[in-house]
From TrEMBL:
This is Phage integrase family protein. Residues 11-198 form the Tyr recombinase domain. InterPro entries: DNA_brk_join_enz, Integrase-like_cat_sf, Integrase_catalytic, Tyrosine_recombinase_XerCD. Gene3D superfamilies: Intergrase catalytic core. Pfam families: Phage_integrase (PF00589). Keywords: DNA integration, DNA recombination.
Length: 204
């Protein structure tokens, strides 16, 4: 398995920084409902596109403010059989309101058939195309981080900068090992300055 990194071999950043996340969100909010909610879900949950496409109305807890995501990375239990692992990720209330309004989630949850149908009936390629188009509109530079993976890494960086404990971030991102999540504690540049500023604020 290849090691997860925040920079490629040429030193290019692989995550969206705070300003780019804000620009992406602003551009997403100008899109049609389907594309807007798709982009906001990737931004607010840090899920992979393949995981997003499995989200159904039944997995959205409107009152609890969370989304249950099935981790698609293969894992084995003690007997060697593949495990099915779900994780719940807390999301902003205003985003949930938009998701509910755009897709009629509360009504869908009342129907067993609709509750188990994917919210976004798209291919992974189409998801990638939508995200790339919105990123271009947000004027995110044409670089390796302009991708859905850049959103996932940006979610991790933002969580660390915001003071989210690594064990909690591990759960939200669906990492099997904490050693994978620790990469986000190695934040640099403006993100590292924000972390240092919090430390200075706790000083003398």
């Amino acid at each position: 398995m290849s090691e997860m990194r925040l920079y490629d071999t040429a030193g290019n950043r692989l995550y969206l920084n705070a300003e780019e996340r804000a620009a992406f969100l602003a551009a997403a909010r100008r899109q049609p409902a389907r594309d807007r909610t798709l982009c906001e879900t990737l931004l607010h949950t840090g899920c992979r596109p393949s995981e997003l496409l499995e989200i159904t109305p039944a997995r959205v807890d409107l009152s609890g403010g969370t989304i249950a995501i099935r981790s698609l990375k293969k894992r084995r239990d003690g007997s060697g059989r593949q495990k099915v692992v779900y994780r719940t990720v807390p999301v902003p209330p205003d985003y949930l309101d938009t998701l509910n309004t755009a897709h009629g989630l509360r009504e869908a949850q009342a129907s067993r058939k609709r509750a188990s149908a994917p919210i976004w009936n798209l291919s992974r390629v189409r998801v990638w195309q939508i995200v790339k188009r919105v990123m271009i509109e947000a004027r995110i530079p044409d670089a390796p981080h302009r991708s859905p993976k850049g959103l996932r890494h940006g979610f991790g960086i933002n969580a660390v900068v915001s003071g989210v404990p690594l064990h909690m971030l591990q759960k939200w991102l669906g990492h099997a090992q904490l050693t994978t999540t620790v990469i986000y504690a190695d934040a640099v540049g403006k993100e590292e300055q924000d972390i240092a500023a919090r430390m200075w604020g706790q000083g003398a």
